[in-house]
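Course assignment 3, question 2. Fill in each field.
Student: A.L.
Task: Predict the tertiary structure for the chain below.
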Amino acid sequence: MKYLTLILFFVFTVTFAQNFEIVVPEQHTSVNLGDEAVFDILLINTGSENLTMYIVRTENNIPSDWTTSLCVAFCFSPNVDSVATTRDFGGSPIAPGDTAEVSLHFFTGENPDSGNVKLKIGDVDNPSQFEMYDFHVSTYLADVDESNNVSDFVLYQNYPNPFNPTTNITYVIARSEATQQSAALQVQLKVYDALGREVATLVNAKQTPGKYSVQFDATELPSGIYYYTLRAGNFVQTKKMILMK
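Answer field:
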């Protein structure tokens, strides 16, 4: 009696339950010419083990005078297209129940334009578990009357940014809100390092309403994140810039 032996091959497809959640508050925004647009991205570990996430810039459709940067603990050069929540990038694996914050930064130019960046965000250990996001930024020209008949204070994003070693900071001083007169105001424009230490005073004088621009020379400073603050009357605003040598 002959027996026919049937060998059955079973192909198992193993699927992993997604063990993370991604929260993106917004994917579209508009900013003044030369301003920085920032998109925050929250990575939440919903699993029971440490989680390492990757972020890959798959498309970078921006004007030639724009740059974009991926940021974990700090922002990386525009030519870095992938980062992760690891020590190599200043981060660390995300513990169960914890949240890590990363961000995408657009540094815009001085002409009205628009651009978009696509990101792929996923689990390093389970590459098939990922999500795609498309971020859009457009720029517009702030309504500033060059005849000094200005009604709003404006602090623009420095340009270029990131920079090495010089960059320009432009701002607008408005006429008095109370009297609508063009009286001079005491104006201060100072630069601080990431620890809040003052590293430069660019302006400390009385200025009449109008649009001004000053150059910041960081030749003697190390690479890193710096902040510049404009104070004029009751107006105070701070913006971030990146020195990359």
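Instructor remarks: Residues 20-140 form a domain with the Immunoglobulin-like fold (CATH 2.60.40.10). The chain is about 0% helix and 50% strand.
Grade: pending
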